[in-house]
Amino acid sequence: MGKGTSCFGLSMVAMKMSYVKQQQFRAHGLRSELVKVDDGATVIRCWVPWQQPEGGVWSAGVADKPAVLFLHDFVADGTVNWEKQIGAFTKEFNVYVPDLVFFGGSETRKEERTEAFQAHCMVKMLHALEVYNEVTVVGAGYGGAVAFWMAHLYPKLIERVVFVATGMHMTPTSQKPLLAEFEYDHISELLLPTTAKGLRNFASVATYKRVHRLPKFMCTDILDVFFDEHRYEKVELLSKMVTGSRGEPPLPLLTQEKSLIIWGAEDQITSLDLGLKLKLHLGNSTNLVVMNKCGHFPQIENPGSFNRILSNFLKSST
């Protein structure tokens, strides 16, 4: 079947995505914009507020809503990862939801592949949108690693960080037991499936509620829409990750006064032990909230509780 096609020549996934964009994102005051940085070498697709404040300087005062940047995990794109958060936060915050480079509508001609490169791209995008300070970044998984480097490299821009299942303290052996379960040699085989069986394997460990049946035509559709494009570059992103690599220097300390960690108690991809290590690294001012009956995607599995936890944190300093 061709790209984005499934049963009867229609892509259920593409139809669902179109509905989400129309009913969720646009209905809550966001529009999709292609932002060019690096003299046009990098293009980032981002959902942005319809109206920008004059001067582009955000503050916690009454006149302007604070800015919140949502960074997605290694699966799919920003639209899919944060669908359940849009309605809860766009009324009180200026929400930005980009696709990281080589996901969704974002790509680059540059050769860098590290999380720090992604961090630079996100900051350049914000500056191009005239957002210069007091940004809270909410990063899930891989997006949380990008958020960590944004916070370290641009402390005046990034005010607070929320880490969702972000394994900053992974080691080269952290995921060996999980990979051995499926006889995989590299994490890319799990996170970037090429077959219906591989997609079912990923689904079986990604969420608390197990996916018992996933029709082959639906698997083909999902693989076409979310995994096949830029597959080579995504494998490069995983191979060149600083997080979890052997021989890398210790993680730097962040200077932000407040951070939050949210973790699924049943996360099989990044174990809760990694959340505890991250909390220890960030210090006593960082709270770790563990969500029961959630796996690697608590913002999707239990959006109501996740949104309440995140809202309380965001409002605690506004």
UniProtKB/TrEMBL annotation:
Cross-referenced PANTHER family, in alphabetical order?
AB HYDROLASE-1 DOMAIN-CONTAINING PROTEIN (PTHR43139:SF62), SI:DKEY-122A22.2 (PTHR43139)
Q: Origin organism of this chain?
A: Ceratodon purpureus
Q: Which residues form the AB hydrolase-1 domain?
A: 66-178
Query: Which domain of life, per UniProt?
Result: Eukaryota
Name of the protein: AB hydrolase-1 domain-containing protein
